[in-house]
Amino acid sequence: MAHYRTSDSKREHFRRYLEKTGVVDSLTSVFVSLYEQQEKPANALEFVKQHLGAVGLASADTETLLQEVSDLRQRCAHLEEENKDLKERLHQYDAASEDGGAAN
Hints:
It comes from Xenotaenia resolanae. The protein is built from 3 helices and no strands.
């Protein structure tokens, strides 16, 4: 009986590990996605592999997109600053033009 309890304890420990690391959630979501397919794929194992692989790709894509967002925010800030400077120069030009026009 001791061997049986040790085996159950190891299984329970492993099950908690899989839950804690998100493996159970990932597998569940892939299986639900497979279940919800109107037309079941001919190769269910390939479907699971593709959808599990997509999780890894998403994080790589996410990293790329986050970098792009950061770059675009910097560019936007630079353009806003340039726009502000150009508006100030235009305002100064208009003010100088009005002063010159009033003197004539």
